[in-house]
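Methods: example folding runs. The two proteins below were folded one after another, and each record is reproduced exactly as written to the output file, sequence line first and structure-token line second.
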Amino acid sequence: MFVRVFDQKRNTYYRSMAYAVLGSGLEQQYIVLDPHTHCFELADYLDNQSQSPRALVDVIQSECSGFLTYHGAQMLKYKHFCKINGYEFADIRDLKGYPEVLENSEFLADIFAGKCVPLETCGIPEKTFPDAVQWNYILTQADADAFMKQFSGFHDSILEAVRYCEDGHSAAAYAVFENCERSGATELCFEGVQMMRIKSPALVCFRNISDASLILENETVFWADASLKKPDESYDGSFIRALCLKWRKIR
């Protein structure tokens, strides 16, 4: 699972793999790794302090391969650890996550108590994308600029197909582009789609894109079929705004 987290202290966003998920619904909490502090954090899903509650965690990828689920009697080991080590027992009814997290009672007790545990002290390894072999991730503006240079800025490319899908937690859009200058097809996967508009070309006989934009801002990615200096959702053409982007050559 991959998420975007709003850091209220720094008033900024960061992205992280989710190492465990506690509870359900609006009461969910996520154990994430803050790349700025190199600490595991216990992040609330919902900001209950504001007048208009908003989500502090956005799910980008909901894939939970490798997760275990603990509930009821399976939490007795953690409860026993708290009792003999003087920790206040956090009554968690639903807990799912990686085995190295769920089976580390000391780590769970520390993060429930202090909301923060340094990466270097707990022995839990950093996780990477399970599909990193199949996809190239664009996580920074430097990644985006490098891809645009490699893909000739989408010049003379054609949007062949777009497939949109949701799974109840997040949305993704798969866009296939034929690029005349690179002779082949490339698939872009926009994950955590927030807004999307695909507009047919004014001239049906001319589908080639002359220019495009790929801008990263606030841990979001904005693609448009025109040269823009900043994300513009009023742009009268095709654009996609999402939380993450990855790509692969398909032929």
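Second run, written to the same file directly after the first:
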Amino acid sequence: MSSRKEQKEALRREREAREQAAQAAARRKQIVGYGVGGALALVALVIVVVVLAGGGGDGGGPGGGDLYPSGVGIPDPGPLSADVEAAAEAAGCVLQSNRAASRDHLDDQNATENYEQNPPTSGRHFAVPAPDGIYDEQPDKEDLVHTLEHGRVIVWFKPNLPADDRGKLKTLFDEDPFHLVLTPDETNMPYAVAATAWNAEPDPLGTGQLMGCKTFNDKVIDALRAFKDEHRDRGPEVVN
């Protein structure tokens, strides 16, 4: 069995491969775009007219919106970005783990589950997980817990976080969005920013993982990178 160091190196190589593929795809799209630019402009105009006529969306669901300023720079990965314990300590964040009590589905879609950790890291959940992506409004926590079971990492933040900091979180998300969720928090969590994951070990229920940061600073960015690489795709039921 490979060591955690080897697993982290493999994850790093996978991330670099995804970034290279995304850059290549962007270049192909740019080339194709020269030939169909007029048609796309017409389609965009139609979409704008339809949205304005309908009053726009409700701000929910993957995709992000006005909650996340664009183009806000973040520090490059530092030497601690591969060591979650050291990165969390440097950022002033705390790490917690909690043995999962259940992997059962909730039959009642109107049910509300009381989770031991806040934000939640494991436990009973709805049958349909929240999709990967960036959210303007938090999905039901019972949907998000199912997303954790599938090996995703969720980054949560207080809605009153300053706009520049929300922009930094979006830039971090865009840096490597694979199997990642970014959402404002509606659980009244005691942190400015937090990250959660659900590990498979020990069988059969696994362990919930939480990193909570009382305040936001640039070192939190590296801590989130390290947490993501440490826990992504280690859930009890990993789904591609």
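Comment on the second run: Residues 200 and 236 are 4 Å apart (CA to CA).
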